[in-house]
């Protein structure tokens, strides 16, 4: 049966890496309808991670239309979230000339390393807030210019996936400050395209969308989009923001000093601040939510995917869906895994080193270690990597007063406790929300005048449990963290040699799971 709600229904649309989810909320934060449509992540060559923009547009239209069909009252508006760092080249008519190149694409590794090596690389990171890493559009643009020069010259506009979807839905070529702040092309202190970054990329402002605030409201839908969604043409569309900052909003971590930690397939840690800035060493990113709210933090490639790897590689006898059994196995090993440390860089790594070079490694292995130690060390490695990100957040001059966490890992009591122990702080776990789609809806409600401020999100999100660190375990992890951090630098020459030798080595086995999302 359709749900009858009071006025003020906004549909938050989250364009993710594996699916698009549309969720309807009222101004009390109640979920009224939800629908998700998936699509593949393609890897036609090693290092590629692409998607078909047309499939994603179809998923947006389908998910929204299914939610609209569940509702009785009119929809006050749509508001958007999307994965950050995507890049699509368009022809003059707005048709894609390239696939949507996602953040997981690493083909521009050499371009990113070249940029990082020059003295101006860190200054560029500080101005744009985006680490120089193959995830971001700046190195991707360099790759296209060098490897596909004819195609590069044919492109009329370079956009992200949300920008293109909005172009098709509303006929407006715009990008919000949040998505733009993750391109490596925006001066986050001036909220203008950075002339030096554009010069490096070999493009002009005319090849980029118009910059708008995340709360910008587009006047309505095209006739075709209205017909396909079941909404009136006059329906307001809020441009919205990136999924990372909106995840903070979705967890209610909207006030300065509040950290949002998420571990799904990958992971991230972000603190809300009022002014943009990164740490002197460039260990964190800085992305916009609104003009007066920014998120500083770091993302890691290797979150829950490490547990999936451990199941396939270390305990295949437990079966394909063995997460609970794996966690129970890890619980049999002591805190610190008997001196065994794992660097969980199965898909290289992002924060805080921002390098595609590292690989995973076990260090300290002895004859006394069993597979429960190896599995636990893998989980501890993920938590220790997040502790390094938290250290970088603090190094950027940010106060950390409260940590809220969510994601698939939060279903495990062991992981909850391990995270609190590794971070050395209490961690609060809200009751389930749809994360970025909820954040998008809240931002849309503010833009449309349905709520006074996104600050109300902190009151709408209920805390299910707060886990406090065990003093002994926290002391063990604190003692191990410097060793964990030193191993990256110590093994960098080895990682470099392995990559140099890779062309002459037998091909790597196919991964048990796809690239991290």
UniProtKB/TrEMBL annotation:
InterPro entries: ATPase_NBD (IPR043129), Carb_kinase_FGGY (IPR000577), Carb_kinase_FGGY_CS (IPR018483), FGGY_C (IPR018485), FGGY_Carb_Kinase (IPR050406), FGGY_N (IPR018484). Keywords: Kinase, Transferase. Residues 260-447 form the Carbohydrate kinase FGGY C-terminal domain. Residues 10-250 form the Carbohydrate kinase FGGY N-terminal domain. Transmembrane segments: none annotated. Belongs to the FGGY kinase family. This is Gluconokinase. It comes from Micromonospora tarensis.
């Amino acid at each position: 049966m359709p749900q009858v709600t009071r006025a003020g229904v906004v549909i938050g649309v989250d364009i993710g890496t594996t699916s698009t989810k549309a969720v309807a909320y009222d101004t009390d934060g109640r979920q009224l309808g939800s629908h998700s449509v998936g699509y593949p992540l393609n890897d036609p060559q090693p290092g590629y991670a692409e998607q078909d923009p047309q499939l994603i547009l179809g998923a947006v239209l389908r998910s929204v239309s299914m939610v609209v069909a569940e509702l009785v009252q009119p929809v006050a508006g749509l508001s958007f979230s999307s994965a950050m760092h995507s890049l699509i080249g368009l022809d003059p008519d707005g048709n894609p000339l390239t696939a949507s190149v996602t953040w997981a694409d690493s083909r521009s590794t050499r371009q990113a390393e070249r940029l990082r090596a020059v003295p101006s690389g860190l200054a560029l990171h500080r101005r744009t807030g985006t680490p120089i890493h193959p995830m971001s559009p700046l190195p991707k643009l360099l790759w296209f210019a060098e490897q596909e020069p004819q195609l590069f010259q044919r492109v009329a506009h370079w956009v992200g996936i949300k920008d293109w979807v909005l172009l098709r839905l509303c006929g407006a070529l715009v990008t919000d400050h949040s998505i733009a702040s993750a391109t490596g092309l925006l001066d986050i202190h001036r909220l203008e395209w950075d002339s030096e970054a554009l010069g490096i990329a070999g493009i002009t402002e005319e090849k980029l969308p118009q910059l708008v605030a995340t709360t910008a409201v587009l006047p309505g839908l095209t006739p075709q989009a209205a017909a396909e969604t079941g909404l009136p043409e006059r329906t307001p569309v809020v441009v919205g923001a990136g999924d990372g900052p909106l995840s903070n909003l979705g967890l209610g971590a909207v006030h300065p000093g509040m950290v949002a930690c998420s571990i799904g397939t990958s992971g991230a840690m972000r603190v809300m601040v009022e002014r943009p800035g990164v740490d002197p060493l460039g260990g964190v990113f800085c992305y916009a939510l609104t003009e007066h709210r920014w998120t500083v933090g770091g993302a890691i490639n290797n979150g829950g995917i490490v547990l999936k790897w451990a199941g396939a590689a270390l305990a295949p006898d437990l079966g394909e869906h063995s997460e609970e059994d794996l966690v129970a196995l890890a619980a049999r090993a002591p805190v610190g895994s008997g001196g065994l440390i794992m660097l969980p860089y199965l898909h290289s790594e992002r924060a805080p080193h921002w390098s595609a070079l590292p690989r995973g490694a076990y260090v300290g292995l002895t004859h006394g270690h069993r597979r429960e130690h190896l599995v636990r060390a893998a989980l501890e490695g993920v938590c220790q990597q997040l502790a390094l990100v938290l250290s970088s957040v603090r190094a950027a001059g940010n106060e950390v007063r409260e940590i809220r966490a969510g994601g698939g890992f939060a279903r495990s009591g062991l992981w909850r406790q391990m995270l609190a122990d590794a971070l050395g702080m209490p961690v609060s776990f809200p009751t389930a929300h749809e994360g970025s789609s909820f954040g998008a809806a809240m931002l849309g409600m503010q833009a449309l005048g349905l709520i006074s401020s996104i600050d109300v999100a902190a009151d709408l999100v209920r805390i299910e449990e707060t886990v406090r660190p065990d003093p002994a375990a926290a002391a063990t992890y604190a003692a191990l963290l410097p060793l964990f951090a030193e191993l990256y630098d110590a093994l960098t020459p080895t990682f470099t040699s392995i990559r140099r030798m890779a062309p002459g080595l037998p091909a790597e086995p196919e991964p048990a799971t796809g690239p991290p999302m």
